[in-house]
């Protein structure tokens, strides 16, 4: 998704903007640009491609010299990735903007503006906002923003320069995230905290339809009527280190290694006297006793964490769980009852479909629980109950540690729910919680013992046209995540299949040498899965088996075996996911892909 930054102060603005944009690269982008006040004029530089391309261009053409400006990384929605479509966009002589989001009624507005003599150079919805703002501007920035915001529909965060107001930036948001950073003699805007953390940890969260006015003397906020707003200053608890690579080749592998710590930090504060305790998050045993049905709604990896939640909650707490893809849930008229609990899982807390799904659930009277990693994000703020996962910033587009902490929370919730419903005693609940607390050490072991093997096996995957992931029960839920991880960063087609379903059609895809990754960590289902593995093996598949360290594997079952530490059957996903992440990582590295920023993808999907 697009990234926005802005700077007012005494530093070299071009440098600040580019370095801040680098910290937003994880959001995904296909072009970049900056606009800086230079001797009373706004100098814009843009380039299709990476920030390196923009920097190369500025080396050649000269970079804008000044202390005030805005910058942008674009993830194309309206119009192809190109220099002309990239931001910042001018709206005429008076206005230059950067934008994250989507303007839904841009066609109507464009027609109106064309009728009023305006001409457009790009295919973007953003240029329409720029032109409209310019059209509405008569020297009063707040008045022009108010009028423009009353005309546009959709989601947006905007950074705005008015040509006659050198030394000032205006910013406004509706739905799309935006923060305002402050330090002595300088201020910033950004789509996310990592962009500014090298300069300041102090920031304000801009709310829906609030306008920020930034100068080097400080920032002020007002609503659309120009009424002053006082806001709470926040202090980021992320170190700059946490937002950087720390010696690893890629963020993804760094984040895989951070999983033990992330789980510890997420789980430990939620345990009291050996029992899961989510009271502080607004979830009490008394409330859980009343829950009749659970919906888990999320996208991508977060939805796969929800699948793990479904299997464990239904098994241990006997509460029916429906897992939905957020973009389906919001339009399929789901049957939600007042006693239902709707759980939204999201790393970023800004995923447009998940946010809309949560709002829908609330409007239908259900209680919503958000499991979110990004502090202060929209989903976190709007949910009735909230459990923060403490994974720290996840920068790689491919989610690893966020998934791991999401499933940790699923376990905590499942244990507490099973106890509340009377299906396990407090003693059993404590034993399960103890086993969960031992998981960080087991994840560490798994990384150590499987890393090199996964690297070797990845060499055998790099030329595959397609592969299958199979498993039963929790292993099937895990297969879905393993398959998504591989395809998003290696660009090799793969599918996850319930092992028992193969013979109903998919087995016809198996050809000599086709890699099949079989996950068989569930002891109770092991023999059944092995039968399915033999079926694909008999048809020529190259089988890579992920099983526990004690599993007895017949000589004819697999070509490669990846063994992971054994723990309780229901907790096996927490170790077994690690080799699936590593296989995807090394396959992507060996294919020479941009591991952390895979093509066409964005970290935070803030548009529908
Ligand atoms: C996972 O590797 C992907 N980047 C993607 O599926 C992601 O999990 C999904 O877009 C949901 O994001 P969220 O957790 O920020 O809501």
Structure commentary:
Helices cover 36% and strands 24% of the residues. It is α/β, with parallel strands linked by helices. The chain has an 8-stranded antiparallel sheet with strand order 3-2-4-1-10-9-11-15, with helices on one face. The longest helix has 23 residues, at 439-461. It starts with a strand and ends in an 18-residue tail after the last helix. 2-deoxy-2-amino glucitol-6-phosphate binds next to helix 9.
Low-confidence stretches: none
Strand order of the largest sheet: 3-2-4-1-10-9-11-15
Radius of gyration: 25 Å
Separation of the first and last Cα atoms = 11 Å
Number of strands: 27
Based on Cα principal axes, name the global outline: globular
Oligomer class? single chain
Reported for the largest beta sheet, the result is: 8 strands, antiparallel
**Percent range of helical residues:** 25-40%
Secondary structure tally, helices: 18
Structural class: alpha/beta
Ligand species: 2-deoxy-2-amino glucitol-6-phosphate
Strand fraction: 15-25%
| Global mean pLDDT | 94
């Amino acid at each position: 998704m697009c990234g926005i930054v802005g700077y007012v102060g005494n530093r070299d603005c071009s440098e600040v903007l580019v370095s801040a944009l680098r910290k937003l690269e994880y959001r995904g982008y296909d072009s970049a640009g900056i606009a800086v006040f230079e001797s009373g004029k706004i100098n814009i530089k843009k380039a299709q491609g990476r920030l390196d391309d923009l920097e190369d261009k500025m080396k050649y053409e000269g970079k804008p010299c000044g202390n005030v400006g805005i910058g942008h990384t674009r993830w194309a929605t309206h119009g192809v990735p190109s220099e002309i479509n990239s931001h910042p966009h001018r709206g005429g002589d008076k206005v230059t903007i950067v934008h994250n989001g989507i303007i839904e009624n841009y066609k109507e507005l464009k027609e109106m503006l064309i009728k009023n003599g305006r001409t457009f150079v790009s295919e973007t919805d953003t240029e329409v906002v720029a032109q409209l703002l310019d059209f509405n501007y008569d020297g009063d920035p707040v008045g022009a923003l108010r009028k423009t915001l009353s005309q546009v529909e959709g989601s947006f965060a905007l950074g705005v320069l008015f040509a006659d107001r050198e030394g000032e930036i205006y910013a406004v948001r509706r739905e799309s995230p935006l923060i305002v950073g402050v330090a002595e003699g300088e201020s910033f805007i950004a789509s996310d905290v990592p962009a500014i953390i090298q300069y300041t940890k102090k920031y304000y969260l801009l709310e829906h339809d609030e306008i920020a006015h930034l100068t080097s003397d400080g920032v002020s906020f007002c609503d659309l009527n120009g009424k002053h707003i006082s806001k709470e200053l926040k202090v980021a608890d992320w170190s700059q280190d946490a937002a950087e690579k720390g010696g690893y080749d890629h963020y993804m592998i760094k984040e895989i290694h951070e999983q033990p710590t992330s789980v510890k930090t997420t789980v430990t504060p939620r345990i009291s006297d050996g029992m899961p305790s989510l009271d502080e998050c607004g979830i009490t045993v008394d409330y859980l006793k009343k829950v009749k049905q659970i919906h888990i709604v999320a996208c991508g990896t977060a939805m796969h964490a929800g699948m793990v939640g479904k299997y464990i909650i239904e098994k241990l707490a006997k509460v029916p769980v429906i897992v939905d893809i957020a973009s389906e849930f919001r339009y399929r008229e789901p049957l939600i009852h007042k006693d239902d609990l709707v759980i939204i899982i999201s790393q970023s807390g800004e995923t447009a479909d998940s946010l809309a799904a949560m709002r829908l659930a609330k409007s239908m009277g259900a209680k919503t629980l958000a499991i979110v990693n990004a502090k202060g994000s929209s989903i976190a703020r709007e949910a009735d109950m909230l459990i923060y996962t403490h994974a720290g910033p996840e920068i790689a587009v491919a989610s690893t540690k966020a998934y791991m902490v999401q499933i940790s929370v699923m376990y905590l919730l499942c244990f507490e729910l099973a106890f509340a419903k009377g299906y396990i005693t407090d003693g059993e609940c404590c034993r399960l919680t103890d086993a969960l607390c031992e998981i960080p050490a087991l994840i560490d072991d798994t990384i150590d013992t499987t890393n090199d093997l996964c690297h070797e096996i990845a060499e055998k995957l790099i030329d595959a046209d397609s592969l299958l992931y199979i498993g039963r029960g929790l292993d099937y839920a895990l297969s879905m995540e393993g398959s998504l991880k591989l395809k998003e960063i290696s660009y090799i087609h793969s599918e996850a299949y319930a092992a028992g379903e193969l013979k109903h059609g998919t087995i016809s895809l198996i050809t000599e040498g086709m890699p099949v990754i079989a996950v068989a960590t569930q002891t109770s289902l092991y023999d059944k899965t092995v039968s399915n593995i033999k079926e694909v093996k008999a048809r020529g598949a190259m089988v890579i088996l992920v099983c526990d360290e004690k599993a007895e594997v017949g000589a004819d079952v697999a070509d490669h075996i990846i063994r992971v530490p054994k723990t309780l059957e229901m907790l096996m996903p927490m170790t077994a996911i690690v080799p699936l992440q590593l296989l995807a990582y090394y396959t992507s590295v060996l294919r020479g892909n941009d591991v952390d920023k895979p093509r066409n993808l964005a970290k935070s999907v803030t548009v529908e």
